Amino acid sequence: MTGEETDSRIDKAALRKALHGRIIGSRLLYFLTLTSTNDHGRELAEDGWPEGTVVLSEEQTAGKGRAGRSWHSPPGLGLYVSIILKPSLAPEKVPLMTLMTAVATARALRDGGNDAVLKWPNDILLGGRKVGGILADARIRPGGPADVVVGLGLNVNHRQEDWPADLLERAGSLRMNAGRTFDRTEILARILIRVDEAYAAARGGNAGSDAALIDDFLSYCPMARGRQVTVIGDGDPIAGESAGLSPAGALRVVTADGVREIHVGEISVAETGDAARG
Ligand code: BTN
């Protein structure tokens, strides 16, 4: 695919073929429009659909982002996908599924020559702009595996003029970064294959696999170590130097009062050198 052309729709048959025999994509549900693939994935999880079920929509009319924000989800330009996971993880380790999806996505983008970096916990950046995000919705069931609907939004073929004014400054896409369009089916297949591999390694949740996942995440996430960060959460902002992740995937920040473990919050990174890239 070249020039100004963008692909019209995702090629379901090609995607099914690429995912044949894998857990991720063992069920593949494709929609032209949904309010939110995460909401539909949650309904399916409640109805007992198996792990690996993938819900994919060409557009979302009420796509959800973190912290109650919306996710801009126009047809034909991005990828909007949710996956049902049922990992055997202790409840406090369930956030590792967000990191796992982020690592798999970064890896798939790098496989395709896109120099993606991660920003803890769930942002995917290219050229300093946010091109993707992950939103996980977990239910912990006493005595059973958690079920987690992990949703990924990726901006693929958006041009500068495709963004609403409030996103113009921060949002990017693969196309804006590389100066060419991308085949969304190919990108999605690469990502889901990488998620399948990463999930197979992480779903059992032992100390070794958790540590390997965290190491992988850190290798894609320069802001998680040695950067001046400010965390905006429920209480007062927390400022300090990032110092890696806890075994459960929390961000460690060394502050004047000691080391804090941050489980949720918006992080701003001091804009010095390449720190601004994530
Ligand atoms: C973020 O704010 O960074 C997370 C964005 C997550 C967006 C994706 S798009 C597919 C899935 N369905 C949703 O409603 N949200 C997620």
Description:
The chain has helices spanning about 10-20, 35-45, 95-110, 175-180, 185-200, 205-220; strands spanning about 25-35, 55-60, 80-85, 115-120, 125, 130-140, 145-155, 225-230, 240-245, 250-255, 260, 265-270. The protein is an alpha+beta fold and about 280 residues long. It has a 7-stranded mixed sheet, sandwiched between helices. A 5-stranded antiparallel sheet has the order 11-10-9-8-12, with no helix packed on it. Strand 6 (about 130-140) and strand 7 form a beta hairpin. Helix 1 packs parallel to helix 5 (about 185-200), helix 3 packs across helix 5 (about 185-200) and helix 3 (about 95-110) crosses helix 6. Bound molecules: biotin. Biotin (BTN) binds near residues 71, 80 and 152.
Structure keywords:
278 residues; alpha+beta; 5-stranded antiparallel sheet; 6 helices
Q: What's this model, at a glance?
A:
The chain has 278 residues and is α+β, with helices and mostly antiparallel strands.
Alpha plus pi helix count: 6
State the order of secondary-structure elements, H for helix, E for strand.
HEHEEHEEEEHHHEEEEE
Sequence stretches where pLDDT stays below 50 over 5 or more residues: 1-5, 274-278
How would you describe the shape? globular
The main sheet comes to:
7 strands, mixed
Ends distance: 30 Å
Spatial order of strands in the largest sheet: 1-2-3-7-6-5-4
**Total strands:** 12
List the helices and strands and how they pair.
Layout: H1 12-19, E1 27-34, H2 37-46, E2 53-60, E3 78-85, H3 96-111, E4 117-119, E5 123-126, E6 129-139, E7 147-155, H4 174-178, H5 184-202, H6 207-220, E8 225-232, E9 238-245, E10 251-255, E11 258-262, E12 266-269
Parallel strand pairs: 1-2
Antiparallel strand pairs: 2-3, 3-7, 4-5, 5-6, 6-7, 8-9, 8-12, 9-10, 10-11
